[in-house]
Sequence to fold (724 residues):
Amino acid sequence: MASLLDTSKPRINCSMLSQHIGRGVCFVGRVEKVHPTGKTFSVSDGEGKSATVELNEPLEEELSGIVEVIGMVSSKGVITTTTYNILREDKGIPFDLELYNEALKVIHDFPQYYPFEVAASG
Amino acid sequence: MTKLSEGTIEALSNGTGVSDAVLQLVNIRKLDGGNGPSRFRVMMSDGRHTLSSFMLSTQLNHMAEENILAPNCICNLKRHVTNILKDGRRVVIILEIDVIKPAKDVAGRIGDPTPYTEGQSKGPQSAPVPENRPPLQPQNRNEAVNRGLNRDFGKKAPSVMPNTPGGSSKVVPIASLNPYQSKWTIRARVTNKSSIRTWSNSRGDGKLFSMEIVDESGEIRVTGFNQEVDKFYSLIEAGKVYYISKGSLKLANKQYTSVKNDYEMTLNGESTIIPCEDSCDVPMVQCDFVSIGDLENRDKDAIVDVIGVCKSVDDISRLTTKSNREVSKRTLSLMDMSGKVVTVTLWGEEAEKFDGSSQPVVAIKGAKLSDFGGRSLSASFSSTLMINPDIPEAYKLRGWYDKEGHAMDGQSLTEVKGGSGGGNTNWKSLSDVKTEHLGHGDKADYYTCVATIVFLRKENCLYQACPSQDCNKKVVDQQNGMFRCEKCDKEFPNFKYRLILSANIADYGDNQWVTCFQESAEAILGQNAAYLGQLKDSNEAAFDEVFQHANFNTFVFRNRVKLETYNDESRIKATVMDVKPVDHKEYSKRLILNIRKLAANH
Fold:
């Protein structure tokens, strides 16, 4: 879905899923359980809540740690993945998911200072 | 017949000390004091001479009033002190005396003693201007005292004071001491005695010790040099009370002490220090405690008294000073009811002896406040450290700590090492620096900021410096293969390259020209000065590359700004003291905190 990558994809956590149904989002969370088929897995956000992620193709690699998923939120609150990134734990500074969640809240509490929409459609 | 100690009178008159002299009391006369207890003047005989200038110390008045001391009784003079009047005459103050044979058991006068004549003086002392009067102020007070004394040995001087055995000078309060009176006696407790310190400089060498003393009226710092060290140092014990007389007073150097007194005292050849037995009403210590939370408002280098609970203590460490001395050091954290915590550094023996287990209440009188890490305290050689002192503040603290304090984390005023966002870092944005006019005051200002390098001046960033270890002065190229350092006054066949880098740093709001010296320049460029010097001379392209690579990097800068004036022109000069990589976690936390704070205030 190339078109998805052209739109703005706000960063969200689980509590914001319902407000973004049918829209492209960016979700960062910790991998919890991977389904045996490798086509779906669960992730938890900085607040400890869980969401389900679906893939078009089954996983080809071991998935663990923190991932960044870009996709669309379905009517059932599941994220259908367009692409994903693994934030490797063995490189760089360890990712602080709780701190990320705090930053997320700031972005959503003060949208007037974080006009991503405008930037993306430009 | 009881044998009297012949020669005692002569000895006493000559100033030679005597101990346990057996004397006969010839006469005792009561003198009315004006305000205060009566004094008794006594004439004693040693069988050979009589001397009428004995005074009974007031604590022994009862012996006279109860007629224990009566004419003809034989006594053992156990303790006394001799005071010399301005005219040279001596007065012997009887501090302790035993009657070994009561008057009724003694027939009459023993022997045929004659009055002992001393060099000067039976003549009335009327000359109001004795020779060696110090040039300063008219000593009206002393004159009255002396005139009174010379006539009557004990008429009280118009001024005051709780009188006691201290001699013909009455005991005066410490608060009344001033440089214009020299004939006084005080009764005070030693709260702090320093160790003997020696010095050796171009003018010679010597030794000194200092102490702080306190009485009901106040406190004062006392110093003794050279001979006075020998005379008094071993006699004095901290915590004990002494009669001290005739020290010299001068204006206090408040820099070195927190003692509240405009003056300080120096012991001299005339000074006397006598132990006092009756000491219960002299206070133990005088402290004016500052709350730890208030320390932020005090100037650095202030001397303060603090009291708190020792929350934690670190292990002792040893360091070597510049003069190659090894010294022990220990830090502890002190918390009080303000909820704030400060780091205190102990040195030497105090550091070694300190036992911080069971979180004792620690009080420090005269601790030095420093701006190291924001605010921190140090116990210097003139500070007094008290563990679990017996004072009401200590009990209050103990009670508070056991109930609530022990559970608190406390907020530390001292920036812990490694935390660039700790305690009191002065975070500013570059526009803040300009709008707040940092550096415009008398002293330099320091601030920390996150900024990006937008320009580096590579021309003239290197200079040739003196190769000597601690000298960084620019050397002059003699053009003959030798380089001359004016500071060391020597020539060298080589030099070392050093960096002075001019850069422009910027953040979202503003930019700032700064100068970076060796360490910070090397950190920014990612290369050391020697290598850069080599590159500049041999491979210009590679040299330029270093600068390209260093550009547009973001760092945490700790800068110093100060207004400097050159020939009528004033300009703000900023120097980079320290460069560190950005700690993104800490930075994010701080930003989020600031955003939330801003939001809350709307």
